[in-house]
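Next comes this protein:
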Amino acid sequence: MKHIVLILSVCLLLGSQIACCTIMLPSIPDIRINVPVKVGEMQSRQETVPLSETELATVEVLFGSGSLKVKAGDSDDLFSGRFRYNIEEWEPKVTYKDDVLVVEQGGSPISPPGDVRNTWELEFSPEIPLEMDLKAVGALGDMDFTGLQLTRLDLDLGAGDFDVRFDKPNGVEMSNLTLDAGASQLNVTGIGNAGPKRMTVQGGAGKITLDLTGVWPQSADVRITAGVGAITLYLPDDVGVRVEPEGKLTNVNVDGLRRRGSAYVNDAFGEAETELRIKVTTGFGTLHLAEVRNH
């Protein structure tokens, strides 16, 4: 009898706890089934966003794989884009709200087997300052930022071959230029025309070529970190330059600079008003430094 009373008491106690408390059950993982994408008919779209009264616009570009072109466009439009693709799930989406423009590729960025086509031609207004974040998973990229007013630029680039240019001085002061090259081949020219106050470059296993010539409006700190690969820096002769290598560089080739302590400097360092202080950190790789005449 005592055992029965004890069991009933425990049951009543558990019942009261269930009545006033919530029992947390383990969550069920979100299981998603990847539906294979198929190559279909070629499709073409044109998107335009008129220029509004905004004084600064933020641009976010999310691209998967294919061919990507970027340049300055019509001054009457904030954005104009032409898209050609033959995977229906990759249909791009363009939205603009609260001074934020988003251009993103639909579906999975992974390319299926077959004759895949995905080409974006994007143009942005040269009339207003822009903050831009651009991500490309894998692409052939031709990005000409000449003529655009960029206050900040962040390029997150996966596998591919990318050509980035700044052929004329930036119309506004740039705070940050960030380049994440992944396992790609990256070539950037005219960085001095972009004129960032801070520049950060992150590379994986690839080839990075940075041309730092141009009209530098201010001194800058440059940080370059790479895993395995080759880094080439073309350095201006009319700006003070100091390059400090770190890490397990297998080879350092220098043309036009001289050794000072643990760093390399040019003749203008300590004399010119504008200076570039560059730190290069690598796992295993080669570094080539070459001073060139600034145009």
About this structure: The chain is about 10% helix and 60% strand. The mean pLDDT is 86. Helices lie at 2-20, 191-194. The radius of gyration is 27 Å.
